[in-house]
Amino acid sequence: MAPRFASSELVSLAEAVLAQAGLPAEPAAAVALGLTEADLLGHTTHGLALLADYVEELDNGTMEREGRPETIADQLAVATWDARRLPGIWTTQLAVEDATRRAATFGIGAIALRRSHHIACLAAFLEAPARAGLLTLVYSSDPSDAHVAPFGGLTPVMTPNPIAAGIPAEPDPILIDVSTSITTAAMCGRVRAAGGRLNGAWIKDSDGNATNDPAAFKAGGSILPIGGLDHGHKGYGLSLMVEAMTQGLGGYGRADAPRDWGASVLVLALSPAAFGGLDGFTRQTGWLADACRASRVPEGAPRVRLPGEAGLGRKRRALAEGVVLHDGIADDLARLARRFGLPAPTPLAD
Length: 350
Fold this sequence. Notes:
With about 350 residues, the chain is an alpha+beta fold. The chain has 2 domains: about 1-65 and about 310-350, Orthogonal Bundle (Hypothetical Oxidoreductase Yiak, Chain: A, domain 1), CATH 1.10.1530.10; about 70-180 and about 225-305, 2-Layer Sandwich (Ribosomal Protein S8, Chain: A, domain 1), CATH 3.30.1370. Helix content is about 40%, strand content about 15%. The chain has helices at about 5-20, 25-40, 50-60, 90-105, 125-130, 185-195, 215-220, 230-250, 280-295, 310-320, 330-340; strands spanning about 70-75, 80, 110-115, 135-140, 165, 175-180, 205, 210, 220-225, 265-270. A 7-stranded mixed beta sheet has the order 1-2-3-10-4-5-6. It has a 3-stranded antiparallel beta sheet with strand order 8-7-9. β5 and β6 form a beta hairpin. α2 (about 25-40) crosses α4 (about 90-105). The N and C termini lie close together (about 10 Å).
């Protein structure tokens, strides 16, 4: 049976590691919580697996330690911040909090972040505001990298450019976190390192052939947009939209030729109370959720689930029974603990 770890111990270790690496208390706490939340929800490529990379960025000076985001523009309901290469999970959490405050006043609030560091798992930002009755969307792109070719092309131009939404509903919010590409660079790297194959022909090699070999991506290929070779114009269009909503609205992106790992981000919060009312909103989302769950399925198949349902179920189990970390993550945490003279995470007793 795979070892399980108390989520509180994982948060504490990650926070202590980041503090030892020179990060002040507030961002260290936010990043530790955000990375652990990703593992709780099952987004294991974008959780504690990133902690060693973040420490390396702090060591190299490519993640800033001190200060806060700088306001570039502020127009009542909307603002643009320069995140100044500060920890992206922290600055995005600040943006979510600020956007939701603006939405409570104006019905809508939006914060564009330029020059953010990596923001990890978008779903990790969504549950709290959705439970508070706010519809929150997060868009992200990385103008410093290119993994996804435009539909019909071979040259990578964009990144997987995820779209996430936290939708108030009962009994749990609907949590959507999807890339506009079929898979992510992190998943390709994990599968390639394990000597495996992807679950589908999600990569286009340098000659334009679809393949499930992640080594083809490393060798100059690209990740296919949602829809693949057949309907990839759909993912391509969504990806263009994300780049416009993040880099375009923030006024900083690929045209500036950035080189550092990071993100351009837009956080958009809407208050249903300012539109048709929160009760009316949840009546509609509740009806839709019930209808989806009740949809007829093939004989012997499981019932239809809503986005985020499995992740929230994993989170509840992990909080009650302990977190199962993906292969190699516990070893990485133990190495970081040794480096900083901290106790390694201890598996829970069976």
